[in-house]
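Budget justification aside, the reviewers requested a transparent look at the raw inputs and outputs of the sequence design task funded under Objective 1. We therefore reproduce one unedited record. The lines immediately below are the structure tokens for a 165-residue chain.
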């Protein structure tokens, strides 16, 4: 097959609609994971896990709303370059079994991994999406995930290096 033609040319592309579907699955998985995890974590982290579940639900609602907007049909069907971070992001749909009493460090490590993947993905999508409301959405999400990651890193440092929350 000649490089740059047919399937090879389309393979690295995706639609924004497909991106939103993947992002919705990513956020739903996280919401369900954190909801199930909340009663299992230490009281020190329960508030955080509940907040993470609520934030993920907000993202599910946001993506679902955008995907249903008729005025964005052309934008949603536009093809963009599939970000290099896409596989890592998609891999996060699989969640680990942290057991019945996960320690704070393990919970925070997992949350950090998810936030980093989301930050990388939304940053890459912001770079690939044409100017407009969806690009603005991905920029805002990248900034939000960066803030979450920074907050989690500070909490992780406190837990790991100071002996607890």
């Amino acid at each position: 097959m000649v490089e740059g033609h047919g399937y090879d040319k389309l393979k690295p592309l995706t639609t924004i609609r497909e991106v939103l579907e993947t992002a919705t699955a990513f956020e739903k998985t996280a919401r369900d994971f954190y909801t199930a995890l909340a009663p299992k974590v230490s009281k020190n982290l329960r508030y955080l896990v509940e907040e993470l579940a609520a934030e993920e639900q907000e993202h599910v609602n946001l993506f679902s709303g955008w995907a249903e907007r008729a005025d964005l049909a052309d934008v949603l069907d536009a093809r963009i370059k599939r970000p290099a971070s896409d596989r890592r992001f998609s891999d996060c749909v699989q969640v680990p079994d942290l057991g019945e009493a996960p320690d704070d460090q393990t919970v925070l490590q997992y949350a950090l991994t998810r936030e980093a993947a989301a930050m990388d993905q939304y940053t890459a999508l912001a770079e690939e999406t044409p100017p407009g409301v969806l690009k603005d959405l991905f920029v805002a999400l990248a900034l939000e995930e960066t803030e979450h990651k920074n907050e989690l890193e500070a909490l992780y440092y406190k837990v790991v290096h100071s002996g607890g929350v």
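The first strand starts at residue 13 and ends at 15. The beta strands are 13-15, 79-81. Computational costs for records of this kind are itemized in the attached budget.
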